[in-house]
Amino acid sequence: MSVTGNWDGAPVTIPMLKDEAGVWSVVVGPLKADVHNYTYTVDGVRLIDPANPDTMRDGANLLSVVLISGPDSSLYALQDVPHGTLSQVWYASPTLGLTRRTYVYTPAGYEGSAARYPVLYLLHGGGGDEDAWNTMGRASMILDNLIAQGKTRPMIVVMPNGNAREFVAQGYALGARPPRMAPGSAGFSEMVLTW
Fold first, then answer.
1. Which residues lie closer than 8 Å to 80 by C-beta, 6 or more apart?
2. Backbone dihedral region of 38: left (phi > 0), alpha (psi from -120 to 50 degrees) or beta?
């Protein structure tokens, strides 16, 4: 049994040890303040942490997530600031002959405002989709925090699915999945993982 995580920015696999009571564990860290993802491998099968409800999806992969708090991760953290709205917007694409979904972030106060806002289009990387910037990149959380700190002006952010053959992120709708692309909590600084 092992755990694989992005502890140092790149995936690192660490074997776990079984104690006399049959509990598998490993101490990972100290970890820098950041969002870290990890999975277990049990008998050759990759699994998320059943004791951690915080997950993110990276393409077809589901990963457990932990946020190590500190100054370097404060933009990713939920803070007591005004929050914008993240909408899932469906639109017709005549070029592709599909109805597709995009995510649209609007800043706090947008709905009642007559002001004009700049628009930023965020396109995901390879293997991603319209869900990636928010679930993996925590875009709406970062924008809320930057706007509240006065480090950026309020803006509309559109996060489309750049995969022409997909109408929606994997796992959202029932039916056949699109073909896979070719391979190409706060308050602590280390964690004890058990199984």
1. none
2. beta
Global pTM exceeds 0.90? no
143: DSSP letter: H
Give 80-92 pLDDT, tens digit per residue: 999 999 999 998 8
Provide CB contacts within 8 A for 81, sequence distance 6+: 144, 145, 147, 148
Per-residue H/E/C for 37-84: EEEEEECCEEECCCCCCCEEEECCEEEEEEECCCHHHHHHCCCCCCCC
β-pairing, 35-42 with 2-5? antiparallel
- If phi > 0 it is left, if psi is from -120 to 50 it is alpha, else beta; for residue 175 that is left
